[in-house]
Amino acid sequence: GRAMAAWARTVRGLLLDVNGVLYDSGGDGGVPIAGSVEAVRRIKASGLKLQFCTNETQATREKFVKKLQGMGFDMSVAEVTAPAPAACRILKERGLRPHLLVHDDLIPEFADIDKANPNCVVIGDAAENFTYANLNEAFRVLIGMEKPVLLSLGTGRYYKETDGLKLDVGAYMKALEYACDVQAEVVGKPSKKFFESALAEMGVPPQQAIMIGDDIVNDVGGAQRCGMRALQVRTGKYRSVHTSH
């Protein structure tokens, strides 16, 4: 009714999750979710500002955007807020030299970061790179430090690909936290800083923005803590909870 219309009028910017909202990823490149290409076109035509917020850490933003443009989405690299560039800013600000436990395709994002003699670990969604040997190497870097620093490019437990659910970075982050008795610093959703930088990109205050995602913790919870409203869509990893009577 009228209240909803008034609420919609105050909105100037949309933050849109990508994986599970616009498309389901997969080894085959993934598939767009029905109606999503058209929805992005309509949002842009309406004059609303749009920032794509992704915890995607299996590819550089350039590669990620190319893939989505190939599916028909109207988007540019500047419209994407992702964890790796945010992590690079932190590493530079704090003089941190990372040991990277990330996907091979993400390495170019860290090209101009000093990685010699590491004094921290950066963990991302490394997928096939999450071998025992690689986890153990990251563990050794951390356990050898007086004050271990672990940066995680997200806290996701799992995500959906076209061939089923996949373990995400959060599960491996917890393993290292547990082994090293350290608390990871999260870069990416649901960290407040991540949402604040997406809002800054759009030049829109939190009260005038809405986050749309498929993840109740990372998308909805993260946005709300930042003073934004959020909507959960029933696609992607959304699973209805069946209660037993």
TrEMBL record:
Family: Belongs to the HAD-like hydrolase superfamily.
Cofactor(s) listed in the protein's UniProt record: Mg(2+)
UniProt function note: Phosphatase that hydrolyzes imidodiphosphate, 3-phosphohistidine and 6-phospholysine. Has broad substrate specificity and can also hydrolyze inorganic diphosphate, but with lower efficiency.
A GO cellular component annotation in the UniProt record: cytosol
UniProt keyword annotations, A-Z: Cytoplasm, Hydrolase, Magnesium, Metal-binding, Nucleus
The EC number(s) this enzyme carries: 3.6.1.1
UniProt protein name: Phospholysine phosphohistidine inorganic pyrophosphate phosphatase
One family name in Pfam for this protein: Hydrolase_like
Catalyzed reactions per annotation: diphosphate + H2O = 2 phosphate + H(+)
GO molecular function: inorganic diphosphate phosphatase activity; metal ion binding; phosphatase activity
CDD domains recorded: HAD_PPase (cd07509)
InterPro entries, sorted: HAD-like_sf, HAD-SF_hydro_IIA, HAD_sf, LHPP/HDHD2
Domain of life from the UniProt record: Eukaryota
Gene giving rise to this polypeptide: Lhpp
Broad class of where this protein is predominantly found: cytoplasm
Location relative to the cell: Cytoplasm; Nucleus
